[in-house]
Amino acid sequence: xxxxxxxxxxxxxxxxxxxxxxxxxxxxxxxxxxxxxxxxxxxxxxxxxxxxxxxxxxxxxxxxxxxxxxxxxxxxxxxxxxxxxxxxxxxxxxxxxxxxxxxxxxxxxxxxxxxxxxxxxxxxxxxxxxxxxxxxxxxxxxxxxxxxxxxxxxxxxxxxxxxxxxxxxxxxxxxxxxxxxxxxxxxxxxxxxxxxxxxxxxxxxxxxxxxxxxxxxxxxxxxxxxxxxxxxxxxxxxxxxxxxxxxxxxxxxxxxxxxxxxxxxxxxxxxxxxxxxxxxxxxxxxxxxxxxxxxxxxxxxxxxxxxxxxxxxxxxxxxxxxxxxxxxxxxxxxxxxxxxxxxxxxxxxxxxxxxxxxxxxxxxxxxxxxxxxxxxxxxxxxxxxxxxxxxxxxxxxxxxxxxxxxxxxxxxxxxxxxxxxxxxxxxxxxxxxxxxxxxxxxxxxxxxxxxxxxxxxxxxxxxxxxxxxxxxxxxxxxxxxxxxxxxxxxxxxxxxxxxxxxxx
Amino acid sequence: xxxxxxxxxxxxxxxxxxxxxxxxxxxxxxxxxxxxxxxxxxxxxxxxxxxxxxxxxxxxxxxxxxxxxxxxxxxxxxxxxxxxxxxxxxxxxxxxxxxxxxxxxxxxxxxxxxxxxxxxxxxxxxxxxxxxxxxxxxxxxxxxxxxxxxxxxxxxxxxxxxxxxxxxxxxxxxxxxxxxxxxxxxxxxxxxxxxxxxxxxxxxxxxxxxxxxxxxxxxxxxxxxxxxxxxxxxxxxxxxxxxxxxxxxxxxxxxxxxxxxxxxxxxxxxxxxxxxxxxxxxxxxxxxxxxxxxxxxxxxxxxxxxxxxxxxxxxxxxxxxxxxxxxxxxxxxxxxxxxxxxxxxxxxxxxxxxxxxxxxxxxxxxxxxxxxxxxxxxxxxxxxxxxxxxxxxxxxxxxxxxxxxxxxxxxxxxxxxxxxxxxxxxxxxxxxxxxxxxxxxxxxxxxxxxxxxxxxxxxxxxxxxxxxxxxxxxxxxxxxxxxxxxxxxxxxxxxxxxxxxxxx
Lengths: 504, 504
Description:
Largest sheet of chain A: 6 strands, mixed, barrel
CATH architecture of the largest domain in chain A: 3-Layer(aba) Sandwich
Distance between the termini of chain A: 82 Å
Largest interface: A-B, 61 and 61 residues
CATH class of the largest domain in chain A: Alpha Beta
Strand content of chain A: 15-25%
CATH superfamily of the largest domain in chain A: Nucleoside phosphorylase/phosphoribosyltransferase catalytic domain
Oligomer: homodimer
Structural class of chain A: alpha/beta
Shape of chain A: globular
């Protein structure tokens, strides 16, 4: 078999393996390759081939005949130096694709079938198109509860698992859609100060203006290896780290990268996604927060209940005891939206300052309280008071500072976006609604979370009165282009509804 | 809005619009773009934006900051010179994607919804992932007959149509899967010689070793513009051209480019695909040939009947009268597989040579006869005899030669692949089966249809006896690599089943 020399092509094709072949290359002609054929790349010694989609190139500066150009993703997976000879051939369709066709035809699949599909997905044997076909095949009309369980198990089994050696390992997840909702950074110190094990790994923001990992990174290093995590958690009982270094439920990330462009968010996939990550992270108790509201991810109480039932069904069968709380999701929590602004809110609460955002403090205490009640020795209803004591006594702040030291305090100077502008009320009246989606969008355009000092600082919340011209919120940006885009978005849709009232 | 300068990137991304942005580009940072975001490219003057998927580049030799690198497909669609300033922004999801979500959730869609989806698809607003979601949503379990009709209509309406000004315009389609089945090149001359209008446009092979267009191209130019087609058909009553220059049902080609990697072939999609092309081509009568056999596309009589009913239902409602014939599909038709070899078979039949492949002659006469019976003046059952007379009298040959002259005789010297090897029988006995898929595969590896002289020449058919060592078929290839691959494939699976018999 003729070989091709590897050549790194500096193109990020985002979670899809792409390789490049020159149209004049002999191998291209003979194998009947055509752009978008899937091929297997074999290293000299036997091993797992890497699957990729083929694009054909006509510029030898990108890839010349005799070379195999590989995108950044492929380069990482192959882990071979440029110039290495490799062989390529047509990729046989993944064996599990037949199960996908069965699913499309309305059949229920077994655990073994979900496992094989997950295996093939994690080995990059599935193109985005095939993943889309799988996801749509599983869409609501045809995804039995047991199938959600099988898929969740498969997603755990095709990745690594963290083990903590204790029977009580707690975790928390918020379904999301509410900007500024940084309760995790309060809950972990409170719960760890109590002595409960809460090794929290979080993701970076995908579509929101800040994820827990992005926000914590303002204060400390979050990029920790599993061994470091273990040490920190052993000492401190908790951590706030980025989950990307442990290979937890990797199929989840791949599925999400296709679900998102499709705006698909079926309950079954949501449950499988969340629970697979938590089980892989070693949790034995999980608190799930479902914020409800017209612009939240879950919009009706009925949908929230249905989701809860599915969480309970799957969790119970995976040795993950969980509690679901349905909370208010009608406006952003706290005042800051964006990493530094949210960190400010969190520190204000930990420091028990009088100007701390009360809604964030209250929600964190409620949720921390529920988590504390996973402890057999804590009476039902007592959790909140214990949490409040830990917070008011300063033990939560001390624990946070200890966690920060253990992970590695951030010493890089950070500052709020130097370009800022206050958006003012268009009329006097009462604030009746704040659009979560629009506020998050403005914060992202302003540069969050990439620019840690970018985002939106809310001065007014729903129910409050404003005078015309009074600042509703301030936009912070680090770069002029972001600044302009965010201002323009706010001009087009201010995100606040102010209703005139006759009297104040 | 800041602009980017267009830069042509010589990458063929095959029916998916891809553009390239440098990671250091200000626009990338500010807009929150991420690889695989969909973006809209706007020209300076208002017009239809071109939608594309974004890949991020880190090599300024491919695309530098301030530039928008565009793949070959995008370059063709934008039709602007490199260096032209354009603006880009996030593509709003196509409005019709909501209908796709409804379909995924099990609802039946209206004509208007299918039309809007088709419009968005033809305007490149759908990524491959979204098209996959649409196709799977329509999969067998949820695609009512009326929906097949609506989709077919939409696929016609979102392209161009050919009109011939006569009430009787005939066409033919074979469901496929049978190599060497070049009846069209016999039927058109026969039917045109009778005076019936048969303006045949065909496609090039996608997965088979030769399409009608590839094979006809051995004899004449097939790349004709609609106006040229019209002139030729006016004079000759028929033509055998490539359909790619008239924009007939373009959504069909886009859907096929996603269906194929997914190996999806639902009856509804098949019917919509075939009938939309025929209606757009201006046909008023259509003969559909469904070859049946264990390795053909349609495998059981029941499936063939179900397909027939669906064809009839949709055809009747689109002023396309059709007849469906179910024919034998258990082995290749004729002897040649590959453009030149199949042309040889066709010419042998037209020239009425005694060594002409009888199965090809017979099948062509049967089908031509059925088409002739679309003529009100031809009695049922008479068509075959009229066809045979036209063939035996030499009028079909004369008509073919006239069509070849009119389209433009091919003057390039062509020759059979100079590398050839006979594959011999592994034992003496009777040939009980020939695997259509394997023979087609060997022919493709040998280089067909790209290399017109490549392919397979069958010496023996099923039912015939062979001695051990006797040639079953000969492989022809133009290039050593193809030659080796084809031989290797034949070694691994000869494609013929020879059963020992006690007596000859």
